[in-house]
Each structure stands twice: as structure tokens, then as C-alpha cells.
What does this fold into?
Amino acid sequence: MAPRNKVIIDTDPGTDDVLALLFALSASPEELEVLLISVTFGNVSVQNCLRNVVSMFHVIEKEMQWRKENGLPEGFEMLKRSKPIVAVGEDEPIGGERMKAAYFPIQDAHADPEKPSSLFTPSSGESYLEILRILDENPPDTVTVIAIGPLSTVARAAAYSPQILARAKAVLVMGGAISVPGNMTPVGEFNAIADALAAAHVYALTSPDPSSTMPLPGTSKLPVYPPAAELGNRRLKVIKFPLDVTTTHTLRRDEFEAKANPLVEKGSPLAEWTKAFLGATFRKQETLHHGHSGGSTAMALHDPLCVWYALTGESQKAEWNISLGQYGRGEDIRIETSGQWTRGMCVIDQRDRKMPNEGEAEVPGDMGNWLSPFKGNRIHRCIGTPGDRALAPLILQTIFG
It folds into this structure.
């Protein structure tokens, strides 16, 4: 049976990125097929991110062997049917300086990143070209891009061939903050700040007129899109998962240890590896945030939430709440790219203004054409899920059995 969902994962692992990857790779092959893991810079350099991905695959190999030797289901059936490609993406933002948030290092004591793994196929090509090749080789609306790092590689793909990128079923973007504080500045979330220009490029491809929300001329390394008429009628579908919805989905230390500790005692390489880096994460959370101590210390499942949607967004559609804004055409969310204190801020029109009359392109006093039906971005935004406390047990059960 063909998988219900084919995905490309663009990632900067990263603690919750690795959990997202393990969650996806542990899914049944009937549910999901991971075609490509695109590694981009983010929390650390792209080479360290690649090392983390390769380390993960070595640990999975050891885990499958350990389970087999102990008479347990090996799991990771998807990897037995098809090996994902691993490709290297951007190592710096398309505009501005690289920003690091290396708070949560991944431990790779079980892995030798120089040793090839039989569970994935390394690519010698650039990641953005692999993304475009896969989208071009598959029918439109059949491959979802899960973007859980800075959008630099996706933006480069968009600039190279916006028409091919728009063939994606959707681009699921973890990033930004709408009505809650940021996690790097009072208004900025890490992925959005790390390459705000890239986010602006990607979001602009949702617009009827991408030029209306593109970054200021001369600020980006990427070319502008062709005129709207040359792009054709199809636009990119972006579903955004901001901190507003991701932060409430958490994994507590006590629930993780209740699942992992017995497996560590039995010798599970995967449980031991994840306990090492999640243990460091929980300890760091205690130093960074108020109210975190002991078993109640928790980490937010930002990136795994996007994988959860890829798995269940259609089969459990009634349990997900995706906002299309007050006008039902998608929310005009724009990214601040040049502010000294507001870089990466998500700007959304919350004014109580009337739409223009039919045939009117602009509304007097509407700077930036926020109300125009022919301008602005068209972002779908997740504002509700099947349950804040449903995700963590699902991840633990899917990964560890």
C-alpha cells in the first residue's frame, strides 16, 4: 500500500528537531514516507546539524539490532521499504549575520558520523535542487514540505523555481509568534529571526502579487520573483505553526523518564541516546525559565507538532483548527526584515477595517495595501490541535513502542 503522506523535512537538528525526525521515521510506512531530509543551519552550523542527523541514523541501526537480538519488534518499518535521501542545505542566512542558539547539544557517543549508514542515501547535490527535483517528479499536491528550521533552503528553492515549489501539497512552517512573546527577543522566534529575509521570500509566494510583500530591494541575496502574470495562477500553500500553538504542547521530564529509564536499564541504544540529550535539555530549561524543576520540567514540542499535522491533518481534520483569517482567504502575515529590535516579528493586520468595494484595488489610508484583495500574503495558520497533552504520549509510544 502506498503511503498516505509523502514528505520532505527541512531541519536544523536541534533537540526537538531530532524528536521530530524520530517521530516521522518511526511512523508506519502506510502513514508516511520521508523522501528527503534537508539539513540547514540553525541552532548550530550546517556541518554540526549534518553530524547530528548521521549520528541519529547510526543509533537507529544499533537500536534495530538490539531489538532484534532481544526478540522485540525492530520498528522503523519505513526505513526498510525506502531510504530517505539526506542532502546539505544552506549554511548561512540569505541576508544578515548567522545567529546561533546552541543551548541544547546532541550527544553522539553511540555514533561515528564518518561511517556510512545503510538507512539513508547521501546526496552529492545541493539540497534546494533535491527539493525541486522531488516536487517536479511527483504529481502536484502529493508531497508536503515540513520546514522546521530557518527557511533559507526553502527560499533558495523558491527563488530558483517558484512554479515548481508551488507544486507542494503544502509547506508546514514552524516559526514566528503572533500574539505571544518570542523566544529570542520579546517579539521574535528563533527560526523567523535566524533568516527573516528567507521567511519573507517564502511567504510572498502565497500572495496574488508576491512583489507586494517581498523584502526591500538590495537586502537579499536572492532575485525577486517574476511578475505575477508569469507565475501563473498557482500559489504556494503555507501552513504556519507559531509559538502560539506549539508552546503549549510539552514533554515532561517525568513522563519521558517513565518511558525511557526501563529501556535504558535493558540496554536500548536509542533510549540511552535520547536520555543523554533530553536530560541536558531539561537541565537547561531549569536554568532558563521560571517554574521548571524536577519531574515537572518540560520542553516544548515545536517541531514534532508539524510532523503530527502531516500524519493526521487529513485523517483527523475535524480535530485541527486552521485559520484562514477574518476574510477567509488566508491571513496576511508579514515578516519584519529590517527592524533593529523587531527583526523576525510577525506582523498581522488586527484593525477593524472594511474590505474595499468590488472593483477597488486600494483603500484610502491603508499603507501597505493590507486590505487589498490583490496584495498581501495568504497564510494558513494552525490555532488548534487534537489536544495539548495528546502529542507527548503519542511520540513516546511511536518511537519506543
